[in-house]
Every structure is written in structure tokens, then in C-alpha cells.
Amino acid sequence: MPALNRVQLIGRLGKDPETRALPSGKKVCSFTLAVDSRWKNGNGEIKEATEWFPVETWGRLGEICNQYLAKGRLVYIEGRVQTDHWQDDKGDPHSKTKVVGGVMQILDRKPEEPEVAATEEEAAA
User: What pTM did the predictor assign?
Assistant: First the structure.
């Protein structure tokens, strides 16, 4: 049976990216992405809402995100949704859903900055 797990987001970073190294030596870069929506309600008033998405990027793509991204930057992220499940010390179940990014492109840039677009495949090369 076919399946698809793909998400595409355009939003602004809520804080500077944080990179950490795992015991295996792999690096992961984490940040939150704020995606705004606007609509008119039944009275014609414009309403706004912001959805926050936790994003992780791995390996070379994570290094690129850590180097070029900062709070407030407008970026395009393409990836997949992943939910981690675990139990705490008391045995209570927990879960966290996040986006694992595979493609990142900065959409706002200063004139002196080069365009940065990366995928996991390009970053590994």
C-alpha cells in the first residue's frame, strides 16, 4: 500500500538554532519554526494565528542550518513528520511530534549573502 509522509513549511525561526552531538558522534540541529496564517471570519474581521513546529536537521544539513540560520529568518523546510515515544522515570508515557528536515532554503537574505539551499543528499556530497 502506498504511503506518503511529507511536509512543506514556510515560516520564521522562533530562536537561534541549537546543535548538539549525540554519543554516536552524529550532530543534530534543532529549532522552532513559526508559521502564520490569516483569514477573515464571518464578520469580515481579519484573524491571525501562529502554529509552532519543532524542526530537526541532521548531519551536514544541520551544520548548514546552524551556520546560516538565526532567529527571525524566513525559511522553507521540507521534510517528514516523526513522533518519538518514551517513558519517564515514573513509567508515564510521553510523545513529541517534530519535523525532520531534508531540504532547507533561506527565503530572505541580505544582498551581500549568497543564496543557500541545501538537501541531505547535497550536504552529504
Answer: 0.81
For residue 105, what is its C-alpha cell? 532554503
CATH number of the domain at 92, please: 2.40.50.140
Residue numbers of the domain that contains 13: 7-124
Q: Does the pLDDT of residue 103 top 90, yes or no?
A: yes
Residue 13 makes CB contacts below 8 A (sequence gap 6+) with 31, 32, 33, 34, 69, 70, 71, 72, 73, 75
Buried b (16+ CB within 10 A) or exposed e, 30-65: bbbbeeeeeeeeeeeeeeeeeeebebbbbebbbbbb
Task: Look at residue 12 and tell me whether its pLDDT is greater than 80.
Answer: yes
φ and ψ at residue 67, rounded to 5 degrees: -75, -40
